[in-house]
Design brief:
Keywords: Signal. This is Lytic transglycosylase. The protein is an alpha+beta fold. Among the domains are: about 1-70 and about 135-170, Helicase, Ruva Protein, domain 3 (Orthogonal Bundle), CATH 1.10.8; about 235-310, no CATH class. It has helices at about 20-25, 30-40, 45-55, 60-70, 75-85, 85-100, 100-110, 115-125, 135-145, 150-165, 190-195, 210-225, 255-265, 270-275, 310-320, 325-335; strands spanning about 1-5, 15, 60, 70-75, 135, 175, 235-240, 270, 280, 295, 305-310. Strands 8-10-11-7-9 form a 5-stranded antiparallel sheet. α5 (about 75-85) packs across α16, α7 (about 100-110) runs parallel beside α12 (about 210-225) and α8 (about 115-125) packs across α16 (about 325-335).
Length: about 350
C-alpha cells in the first residue's frame, strides 16, 4: 500500500506575480488578493476587517511545491504501526491520560467519548500538542487558492478562517498551522473547526491551539457528531479459519465516502454470524457474545492483518480516511486502556 506523507518543512516566502496555473499566469498574486477581498466583503465580512486580515500577504512558493510533490513510500501496517505507536509514545500517552483524567472524565461524560480515544488522537495528530505547524494560515490558504488546482476547496477554508478570526478565537499573529491549513492540537482544517470545535471550559472561545479543555472537547465533539458510541470500542484483530471465503472481506475500493459506506453496509454482519463462520480472537477464543455488527477489513490485503471493525471505526475514518491511521488510533487507545491505569 502506498501512503502519502505531507511534507511540512520550512517554507520560502517570495513576492510572486505569477503561479503555475493558466489563470494565475494572467492575474498577479496581488490582484488575486484584491479580488478575494471583494469576494469576502460580498460574503458579509466588513471591509475594514477584510482589509486588516488580507493585507501584506505573501505568496509562499515552497508550500505550492510541497502540495505538488508529496512523496509516496511503500509501507505496510507491520512497518507503519511501530513508527506511529512506539513504546515511548504509549508510555507518554498513559501518563497524559492519568495527568488529565479529571478533565478527560468531565469531557467524556459531556460528549460520550471514552478518554483513551481522545488522548490517542491528541497524541497521534500533534504529539500531545507539541507539533502544530508554524505556517501562517491565511497566507498558506491564499497561496494554495491562487495556485488554482483546488481553488474552490482552499477558498472555502479561507472564508472559514476569516470567520474564526472574526469570532475572536485566536489572533492572526498566532493563527498558525500546517502548510495545508490544518490547525491546533487536533489539526482541524478551518471548515472542521467551524463544524466541530467546542468550548470546553465556558470562556466563550474555542482555543484548540493552547487550551486543553477546548482541544479535548473538540476531539470528542467531532467523534460524537460523526456517530460515536461509548458503548463499544473501535474493533479488534482477528483470525480467520482455513478456507475462509475472502470475498466476505469488505471491499476498500471507492471513489468517495458514500460509496465506502455502501461497501461497509454490504459487508456488515453480526458478531454471532462471524463466529459461525469461524472468525475468532487472535488467541483462538470465541468472539464476544454481544449484539454488535462488524465488518472484516484488511488494511493491507488478505495476507496481512485482519480486523473486525465496529461502527466507531466509521467515525474515525471520517476524521481521516486512512486504514493505517485509524488502526494506529485504535491500537494506541487499546494500549492506553490496557492494562488498566491505577
Amino acid at each position: 500500500m502506498k501512503i502519502k506523507f505531507w511534507l511540512a518543512g520550512l517554507f520560502l516566502s517570495v513576492s510572486a506575480t505569477t503561479a503555475t496555473n493558466s489563470f494565475a499566469a494572467e492575474v498577479s498574486f496581488e490582484q488575486y488578493v484584491e479580488n478575494l477581498k471583494k469576494e469576502a466583503i460580498a460574503k458579509g465580512f466588513e471591509s475594514e476587517f477584510v482589509n486588516d486580515h488580507l493585507k501584506g500577504l505573501t505568496y509562499l512558493n515552497r508550500i505550492v511545491a510541497a502540495d505538488k510533490n508529496q512523496p509516496e513510500f511503500k509501507e505496510t501496517l507491520d512497518t507503519y504501526l511501530p513508527k506511529r505507536v512506539p513504546e515511548w509514545k504509549v508510555k507518554k500517552a498513559r501518563d497524559a491520560y492519568k495527568e488529565n483524567l479529571p478533565l478527560l472524565t468531565r469531557i467524556s461524560k459531556e460528549f460520550g467519548v471514552q478518554p483513551r480515544f481522545i488522548v490517542s488522537l491528541w497524541a497521534l495528530e500533534t504529539n500531545f500538542g507539541r507539533i502544530q505547524g508554524k505556517h501562517p494560515i491565511i497566507d498558506s490558504l491564499v497561496t494554495l487558492s491562487y495556485d488554482g488546482r483546488r481553488e474552490a476547496f482552499f477558498k472555502n477554508q479561507l472564508w472559514a478562517s476569516l470567520t474564526i478570526l472574526k469570532e475572536g478565537h485566536i489572533s492572526q499573529e498566532k493563527f498558525l498551522g500546517s502548510w495545508a491549513g490544518a490547525m491546533g492540537q487536533c489539526q482541524f482544517i478551518p471548515t472542521s473547526f467551524i463544524a466541530y470545535a467546542a468550548d470546553g471550559d465556558g470562556d466563550g472561545k474555542k482555543d484548540i491551539w493552547n487550551n486543553k479543555a477546548d482541544v479535548f472537547a473538540s476531539i470528542a465533539n467531532y467523534l460524537k457528531s460523526e456517530g460515536w458510541s461509548n458503548r463499544q470500542t473501535w474493533g479488534r484483530q482477528v483470525k480467520l479459519p482455513v478456507g475462509f471465503d475472502k470475498s466476505l472481506i469488505m471491499s476498500k475500493g471507492s471513489k468517495g465516502r458514500r460509496q465506502w459506506l455502501n461497501n461497509w453496509n454490504d459487508a456488515e454482519k453480526s458478531l454471532a454470524d462471524w463466529s459461525k463462520l469461524g472468525v475468532t480472537r487472535m488467541n483462538g477464543a470465541v468472539l464476544p457474545k454481544v449484539s454488535l455488527n462488524a465488518v472484516l477489513i484488511t488494511p493491507d490485503d488478505a495476507k496481512g492483518r485482519i480486523y473486525l471493525a465496529y461502527d466507531n471505526y466509521k467515525s474515525l475514518m471520517h476524521w481521516n480516511r486512512s486504514y493505517y491511521f485509524v488502526t494506529s488510533v485504535g491500537s494506541l487507545a487499546d494500549r492506553i486502556g490496557y492494562p488498566k491505569i491505577k
